[in-house]
């Protein structure tokens, strides 16, 4: 193998965010930019010589070029084998599944998730370790440190490999296998859910479904599982071809970006279940006919019902949610006597808890739920969970959610995002807010009295790592909360996220619009942080 050592200089902006490094395509296309980051990953870990690396992405623009570059670097750095998804495709949960099943050293996932794709849009890269999950913070920080000091990277002279057919190839001395990206994942889903039962309902039309793959990576997975295996009629999966620019849309499954699906679910003859997934297939949105399931509620409902599904029939060990996620799941854990953990935002913080067997289910308010079957959130898994649950309970989505509220109370919840703010302005807003926290404690507002106000810090119960500065929490009497944090996935300016929650135990009050039920707290958030005055924005960019 003809190894080349290429001299380079550091870039100062390669600190991974909530989920990997995300930048505009033009940034990634600068000479050495991608290579510097990849070499910084390899230099941050030990023991990969001769081992397997899993490689794939969400199919967005620049996916294939980046993949060929990484293959040559992996060979030159001494990996023994690479498993690559056909056409460079692997959804994030499928990559996690493949890493675990084939006992790989780790994987590199090329995705900027729900961010738009195309030459003028975003690209991203993420490293997952041998447990199949996103590298823990101590590794991502080591990658960043390496990227600041890098002066050379290793590659090799080799031809590009054919990504468009399944089979074996070599890059230098490294074996490359182009694999079916769907097979291992489908087999895993078959172990967890009652495919026979779901097939009976879907193929007979007793249960109908519309899944929106948003022109992103989940299309091939949804076609294979929902249509081929489960017999849903053709047409049940829409926007099912992964496109390099996602057809120009935000591949973000929420009420704002999945408009067609939402219209269908609110129209005449709506299917029983509506769902959508994001760019890399790890998020999910669940809808019923004329009904929207808040992601936080979805997690709580899964926890309360998991025992009804084959993969979780033995019960669950515990649950976890990210700090801004609503406390609906805490109430279920309380009732079932299960441990419940509150982690910082981002899936990497669930890894240790899952590996240690402390939790079985976990989730985030940002349309992410998952279980110990992989180490990523998993969009299609969540859809199958709901399908299987509807089949077992024989009730509509709305009926399942409403009976959950009656039993546990309803945690009204909303997130308000202010996107593309000036970075300094957003940082000043947060810093001023932090400075005011001590004086807020004890203060009485119309919406309630502040019991606690802090900047969230997390000590990992498995390895004692402390992660601080994870978001400002204002906790009010009665469990209501307002949380403020800045996004760690954006590529333009800063995004301020405001998360608002209030518990309602009175069942006669469960049918309100959350924006109305939470009005007092929404006003209070603006009063405390002066969002409108400081940003000049009259309203959030996106409300979920
Ligand atoms: C957002 C979400 C967070 C999620 C992350 C990655 O991060 O809020 O819950 O884990 O995206 O999701 P942030 O820092 O922008 O709030 V994905 O599907 O974009 O990999
Ligand atoms: Co995603």
UniProtKB/TrEMBL annotation:
<feature type="domain" description="Alpha-D-phosphohexomutase alpha/beta/alpha">
    <location>
        <begin position="296"/>
        <end position="407"/>
    </location>
</feature>
<dbReference type="Pfam" id="PF02878">
    <property type="entry name" value="PGM_PMM_I"/>
</dbReference>
<dbReference type="InterPro" id="IPR005844">
    <property type="entry name" value="A-D-PHexomutase_a/b/a-I"/>
</dbReference>
<dbReference type="InterPro" id="IPR005846">
    <property type="entry name" value="A-D-PHexomutase_a/b/a-III"/>
</dbReference>
<dbReference type="Pfam" id="PF02879">
    <property type="entry name" value="PGM_PMM_II"/>
</dbReference>
<keyword id="KW-0119">Carbohydrate metabolism</keyword>
<keyword id="KW-0413">Isomerase</keyword>
<dbReference type="Pfam" id="PF02880">
    <property type="entry name" value="PGM_PMM_III"/>
</dbReference>
<dbReference type="InterPro" id="IPR005841">
    <property type="entry name" value="Alpha-D-phosphohexomutase_SF"/>
</dbReference>
<feature type="domain" description="Alpha-D-phosphohexomutase alpha/beta/alpha">
    <location>
        <begin position="184"/>
        <end position="287"/>
    </location>
</feature>
<feature type="domain" description="Alpha-D-phosphohexomutase alpha/beta/alpha">
    <location>
        <begin position="14"/>
        <end position="153"/>
    </location>
</feature>
<dbReference type="InterPro" id="IPR016066">
    <property type="entry name" value="A-D-PHexomutase_CS"/>
</dbReference>
<keyword id="KW-0313">Glucose metabolism</keyword>
<dbReference type="Pfam" id="PF24947">
    <property type="entry name" value="PGM1_C_vert_fung"/>
</dbReference>
<keyword id="KW-0460">Magnesium</keyword>
<comment type="similarity">
    <text>Belongs to the phosphohexose mutase family.</text>
</comment>
<protein>
    <recommendedName>
        <fullName>phosphoglucomutase (alpha-D-glucose-1,6-bisphosphate-dependent)</fullName>
        <ecNumber>5.4.2.2</ecNumber>
    </recommendedName>
</protein>
<dbReference type="InterPro" id="IPR005845">
    <property type="entry name" value="A-D-PHexomutase_a/b/a-II"/>
</dbReference>
<dbReference type="GO" id="GO:0004614">
    <property type="term" value="F:phosphoglucomutase activity"/>
</dbReference>
<keyword id="KW-0479">Metal-binding</keyword>
<dbReference type="InterPro" id="IPR045244">
    <property type="entry name" value="PGM"/>
</dbReference>
<dbReference type="InterPro" id="IPR036900">
    <property type="entry name" value="A-D-PHexomutase_C_sf"/>
</dbReference>
<dbReference type="GO" id="GO:0005829">
    <property type="term" value="C:cytosol"/>
</dbReference>
<keyword id="KW-0597">Phosphoprotein</keyword>
<dbReference type="InterPro" id="IPR016055">
    <property type="entry name" value="A-D-PHexomutase_a/b/a-I/II/III"/>
</dbReference>
<dbReference type="GO" id="GO:0006006">
    <property type="term" value="P:glucose metabolic process"/>
</dbReference>
<dbReference type="GO" id="GO:0000287">
    <property type="term" value="F:magnesium ion binding"/>
</dbReference>
């Amino acid at each position: 193998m003809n190894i080349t050592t290429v001299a380079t200089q550091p870039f100062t902006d390669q600190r991974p965010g909530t989920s990997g490094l995300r930048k505009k395509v033009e940034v990634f296309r600068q000479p050495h930019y991608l290579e510097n980051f990849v070499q910084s990953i390899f230099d941050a870990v030990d023991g990969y010589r001769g081992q397997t690396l899993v490689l794939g992405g969400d199919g967005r623009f620049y996916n294939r070029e980046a993949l060929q570059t990484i293959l040559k670097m992996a060979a030159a750095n001494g990996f023994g084998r690479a498993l690559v998804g056909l056409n460079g495709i692997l959804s994030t949960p499928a990559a996690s599944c493949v890493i675990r099943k084939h006992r790989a050293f780790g994987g590199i996932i090329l995705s900027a998730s729900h961010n738009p794709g195309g030459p003028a849009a975003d690209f991203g890269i993420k490293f997952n370790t041998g447990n199949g999950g996103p590298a823990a913070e101590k590794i991502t920080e080591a990658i960043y440190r390496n990227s600041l000091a890098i002066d050379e990277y290793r590659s090799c002279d080799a031809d590009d490999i054919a990504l468009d057919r399944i089979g074996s190839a070599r890059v230098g001395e490294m074996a490359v296998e182009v694999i079916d990206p769907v097979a291992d994942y489908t087999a895993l889903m078959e172990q967890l859910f009652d495919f026979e039962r779901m097939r009976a309902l879907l193929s007979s039309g007793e249960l109908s479904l519309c899944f929106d793959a948003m022109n992103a990576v989940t299309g091939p997975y949804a076609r294979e599982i929902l249509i081929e295996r489960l017999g849903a009629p053709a047409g049940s999966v829409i926007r099912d071809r992964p496109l390099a620019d996602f057809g120009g849309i935000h591949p973000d499954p929420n009420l704002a970006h999945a408009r067609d699906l939402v219209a269908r679910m609110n129209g005449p003859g709506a299917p029983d279940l509506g769902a959508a997934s994001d760019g890399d297939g790890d998020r999910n949105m669940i809808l019923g006919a004329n009904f929207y399931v808040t992601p936080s509620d979805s997690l709580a409902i899964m926890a309360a019902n998991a025992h009804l599904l084959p993969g979780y029939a033995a019960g669950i060990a515990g649950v976890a949610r990210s700090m801004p996620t609503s406390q609906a799941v805490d109430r279920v854990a309380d009732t079932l006597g299960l441990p419940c953990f509150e982690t910082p935002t981002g899936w990497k913080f669930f890894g240790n808890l899952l590996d240690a067997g402390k939790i079985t289910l976990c989730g985030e308010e940002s349309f992410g739920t998952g279980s110990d079957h992989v180490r990523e959130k998993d969009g299609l898994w969540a859809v199958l969970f709901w399908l299987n649950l509807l089949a077992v309970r024989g009730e509509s989505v709305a009926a399942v959610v409403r009976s959950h509220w009656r039993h546990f109370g309803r945690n009204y919840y909303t997130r308000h995002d202010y996107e593309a703010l000036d970075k300094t302005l957003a940082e000043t807003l947060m810093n001023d807010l932090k400075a005011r926290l001590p004086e807020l404690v004890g203060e009485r507002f119309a919406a309630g009295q502040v019991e606690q106000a802090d900047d969230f810090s997390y000590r990992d119960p498995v390895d004692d790592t402390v992660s601080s500065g994870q978001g400002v929490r204002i906790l009010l009497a009665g469990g209501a909360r307002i949380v403020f944090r800045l996004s760690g996935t954006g590529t333009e300016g800063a995004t301020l996220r405001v998360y608002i929650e209030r518990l309602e135990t009175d069942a006669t009050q469960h049918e309100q619009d959350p924006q109305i039920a939470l009005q007092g707290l929404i006003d209070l958030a603006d009063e405390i942080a002066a969002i409108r005055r400081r940003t000049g924005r009259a309203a959030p960019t996106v409300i979920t």
